[in-house]
């Protein structure tokens, strides 16, 4: 009976130790996941104005910038990216969308600018997303793996390192899926704005064409009636 109780006590301690290690690793993973610098933003760019945004990057990382003009006449803007030293890396003129990758990056703040100064009346709605990889913040320290050993020196049968790698891979795939869904929503908003704009134009020109046809028909009828109208008086 005492032997059974001793085994149950060791089993409970082992289970509690595993749960404590997993809980601590999960907290560390959540803390690392929260350090992601990926960002997305939708803003309204007034006519005759330019807007600039700054993104901090570490050295030897990869920065991907994707933008789309989703509303506004012409749906085009000027786009530039400047390095932390002020070097002009990317210049685009009158574009509606684009994807650019800066690799490797320099340590500092990158300047990302959208210019609508060429338009005097039309404001533009712009969506852009910044994805930075290689920040080096997704590595979990070795202090958490120290709990893999029991006080008696035997290793636990659970491979927490494999679990960590699986969860990291799952998190990366979920993050990429979220980014793709955001881009697809931006495409959907842009297509919807194009359809609404084209619908207004089609309706306007259809009404104008109908009015012209009615005026032409009325003019033709009036002209024919004037041609066959005999104004001579009949003498009796």
Automatic annotation (TrEMBL):
InterPro entries: Emp24-like, GOLD_dom, GOLD_dom_sf. Keywords: Endoplasmic reticulum, Membrane, Signal, Transmembrane, Transmembrane helix. SUPFAM superfamilies: Supernatant protein factor (SPF), C-terminal domain (SSF101576). One of its GO terms (cellular component) is endoplasmic reticulum-Golgi intermediate compartment membrane. It is a single-pass type I membrane protein. Residues 1-32 form the signal peptide. It comes from the Eukaryota. It is found in: Endoplasmic reticulum membrane; Endoplasmic reticulum-Golgi intermediate compartment membrane; Golgi apparatus, cis-Golgi network membrane; Membrane. Pfam families: EMP24_GP25L. The chain crosses the membrane at residues 202-224. The keyword Signal applies. Belongs to the EMP24/GP25L family. This is Putative transmembrane emp24 domain-containing protein 1-like.
């Amino acid at each position: 009976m005492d032997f059974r109780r001793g085994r149950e006590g060791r089993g409970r301690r082992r289970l509690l130790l595993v749960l404590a290690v997993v809980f601590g690793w999960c907290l560390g993973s959540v803390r690392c996941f929260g350090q992601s610098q990926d960002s997305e933003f939708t803003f309204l760019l007034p006519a005759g104005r330019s807007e600039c945004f700054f993104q901090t990057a570490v050295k030897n990382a990869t920065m991907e910038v994707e933008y789309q003009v989703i509303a506004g006449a012409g749906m085009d803007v000027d786009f530039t990216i400047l390095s932390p030293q002020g070097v002009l890396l990317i210049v685009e003129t009158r574009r509606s969308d684009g994807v650019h990758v800066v690799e490797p990056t320099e340590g500092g703040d990158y300047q990302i600018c959208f210019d609508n100064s060429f338009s005097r009346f039309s404001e533009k709605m712009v969506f852009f997303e910044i994805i930075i990889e290689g920040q080096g913040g997704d590595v979990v320290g070795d202090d958490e793996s120290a709990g893999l050993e029991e006080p008696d020196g035997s290793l636990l049968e659970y491979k927490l390192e494999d679990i960590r790698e699986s969860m990291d891979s799952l998190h990366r795939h979920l993050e990429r899926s979220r980014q793709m869904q955001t881009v697809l929503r931006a495409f959907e908003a842009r297509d919807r704005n194009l359809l609404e704009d084209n619908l207004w134009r089609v309706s306007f020109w259809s009404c104008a064409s109908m009015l012209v046809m009615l005026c032409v028909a009325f003019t033709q009828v009036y002209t024919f009636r004037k041609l066959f109208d005999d104004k001579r008086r009949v003498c009796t």
